[in-house]
């Protein structure tokens, strides 16, 4: 499936064209993740969750939302170094948060060791691992990095959830 969703960006002429990733993008996504210092494992398995920005036939930005039932896991947010600071990640993250809302996720989580300050812009806040919903806690990324004390776990709650009374913010 291929989708193309213009997303408003900073300047009036800046409209990154966001598309669903295809199998042809796998190697480019892997290269972008490696160049950005992020894990590049199982990209092909998670391809359905990826959105990309292509410029001149080249993938310059990507991001992924893994579906874990009631919650999502945002990961693999990366922008080519020479294209950073132009709103590409903002557009991709906004599109994936909209996807999470459409799916009815009550929360989106992420793990980061370098970009906590970036994600607070979207309303994410640090959360204790003990508060992470079980479906997300058992995901590959948490299994691999969840015990890493240098990674911050962050959450964006979309609505109040009775099992997680700290929710209710994040709109
Ligand atoms: C983090 C990243 C995805 C941001 O991409 P981007 O397209 O440059 O981001 P945007 O254009 O939407 O936003 C740029 C703003 O975010 C800020 N920003 C960028 N990276 C940041 C970080 N790690 N922490 C805090 N703020 C950050 C910039 O200073 C800029 O601020 P300004 O709006 O005040 O000028 C990109 O720097 C990147 O690929 N980093 C390496 C991979 C990574 O750390 N990914 C996140 C963890 S999954």
Overall morphology? globular
Biggest sheet overview: 8 strands, mixed
Q: How would you name the oligomeric state of the polypeptide chains in this document?
A: single chain
**CATH superfamily assignment?**
Gcn5-related N-acetyltransferase (GNAT)
CATH architecture: 3-Layer(aba) Sandwich
Cα radius of gyration in angstroms: 15 Å
SSE topology string: EEHEEEHEHEHHE
Tell me, rounded to a whole number, the average pLDDT: 86
Tell me the domain tally: 1
The ligands bound in this entry are:
coenzyme A
Brief characterization of the structure:
With about 170 residues, the protein is α+β, with helices and mostly antiparallel strands. The protein has helices at about 25-35, 90-105, 115-120, 135, 140-145; strands at about 5, 15-20, 50-55, 60-70, 70-80, 105-110, 125, 150-155.
Keywords:
single chain, 171 residues, alpha+beta, Aminopeptidase, eight-stranded mixed beta sheet, 5 helices, 23% helix, disordered N terminus, disordered C terminus, binds coenzyme A
